[in-house]
Amino acid sequence: MADDVHVCERCSDNFIVNSKLVCCKKCKKSYHSQCVSVKDDALKILSKSNNFAWICDMCKNAEDGACVDDNGGQAEKNKLKSECLKQKEIECLQREKCILEKLVTELENASQLQKFKIDVYEKELNATKTSSSNSGMLQKTYKAIVYQQ
């Protein structure tokens, strides 16, 4: 194999152009993020921050695939966990917002339909009243004509 071809240390597959990969801070070996169960939100944080580094299973002692700072500080691990939780909360709230927007739209449509039905019923009622009123006038006219003759 050529020296310039990089492969995942876990699955031995080549990295394609758009592969998501993570490199161990200590041994510098590369892995597909999905091969080592590094989620996209953690990858974003790793790529944007110089304060965090990922350590592979072979290099870490008691860590469980967590992101740690260069000194292995617990505060930094907690900060990363907090960021991940915030991101998940944001995603959850966005899904809830989408659902609520759909419900509001459905309620607005139902309200418009009810208003339309009310308008139709009012027109029918007015037509019935007008018809009844005309019928009453016809009866009066009929009686007036019949009894005058």
TrEMBL record:
Q: Give any Pfam family that matches.
A: PHD
User: Keywords for this entry?
Assistant: Metal-binding, Zinc, Zinc-finger
Keyword check for Nucleotide-binding, yes or no: no
SUPFAM superfamilies per UniProt: FYVE/PHD zinc finger
Q: Does the keyword Zinc apply?
A: yes
Report the GO molecular function annotations. zinc ion binding
User: Mind telling me which residue stretches traverse the membrane in this protein?
Assistant: none
In this chain the PHD-type domain maps to 5-62
Q: PROSITE patterns given for it?
A: ZF_PHD_1 (PS01359), ZF_PHD_2 (PS50016)
List the protein's name: PHD-type domain-containing protein
Q: What is the lineage of its organism?
A: Eukaryota, Metazoa, Ecdysozoa, Arthropoda, Hexapoda
